[in-house]
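Exercise 7b. Backbone tokens:
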């Protein structure tokens, strides 16, 4: 097995027998994404237990108490990455663990190639290694979101793509509804029925994730980050941020700045 560590993202490529298992009752501050090549792993959270088999992407949200490992009597051959978060995650269903089956053939080969590139970029640490790694992760998240939204009403899928591309703009449900030829009330009902979340909740989840990254990695203040991602009212932003992250934006930023920068890959074994 091998793993590569750097400041923000940790990646690896493991082949483990059924003695492999990790338990984190308190969860983690980052996200975990895996891609299974062979065998079978499991993820266990308060919501239940899910399997991750060949050709499947698994995404474990930050802050969720969990255990994961190799299924008894199996091996688990998988590639993985821990990362602090990306706005594209806001396009995915708000579940503790998400398992997305990638269709065999070209798409599975594409995901494999992206993961290999991600691991290589994290190991080589070129001049823009962090940006390259984030781009690879964003691509994987978007491919997973695309597979899930293909099952949705085409108008909902179109709105999801618009939220991803234009999340910093002052979008309204009326704007989105007009773009897909629906009334605002019809779009709101359809979107919630298809995704389980409102349009606004989905958009805000993306904006909050991006704001947290801007504060930690780009040196933006809480006020600057709020306006950078499209919030027009700071107090509204701060209230939503506290609800999602459990602390105020300023406290979150201070805590992250005080945290140790290097991350030990052994902590993720």
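Sequence design result:
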């Amino acid at each position: 097995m091998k793993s590569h560590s750097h400041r923000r993202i940790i990646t690896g490529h493991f082949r483990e027998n059924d003695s492999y298992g990790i338990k984190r009752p308190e969860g983690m501050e980052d996200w975990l994404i895996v891609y299974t090549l062979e065998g079978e792993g499991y993820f266990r959270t308060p919501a239940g237990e899910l399997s991750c088999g060949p050709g499947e992407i698994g995404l474990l949200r930050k802050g969720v108490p969990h255990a994961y490992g190799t299924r008894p009597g199996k091996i688990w051959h998988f590639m993985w990455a821990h990362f602090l978060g990306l706005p594209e995650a806001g396009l995915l269903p708000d579940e503790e663990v998400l398992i997305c089956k990638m269709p065999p053939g070209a798409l599975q080969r594409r995901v494999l190639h992206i993961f290999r590139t991600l691991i290589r970029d994290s190991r080589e640490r070129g001049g823009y290694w962090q940006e390259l790694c984030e781009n690879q992760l964003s691509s994987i998240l978007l491919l997973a979101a695309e597979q899930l939204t293909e099952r949705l009403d085409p108008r909902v899928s179109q709105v999801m793509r618009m939220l991803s591309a234009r999340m910093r703009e002052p979008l309204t449900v009326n704007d989105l509804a007009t773009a897909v030829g629906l009334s605002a009330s019809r779009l709101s009902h359809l979107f919630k029925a298809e995704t389980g979340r409102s349009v606004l909740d989905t958009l805000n989840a993306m904006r909050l994730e991006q704001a947290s990254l801007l504060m930690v990695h780009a040196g933006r203040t809480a006020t600057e980050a709020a306006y950078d991602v499209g919030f027009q009212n700071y107090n509204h932003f701060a209230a939503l941020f506290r609800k999602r992250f459990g602390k105020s934006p300023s406290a979150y930023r201070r805590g992250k700045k005080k945290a140790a920068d290097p991350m030990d890959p052994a902590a993720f074994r």
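Instructor comment: Residues 2-7, 260-269 have pLDDT under 50 and may be disordered. The longest strand covers residues 31-39.
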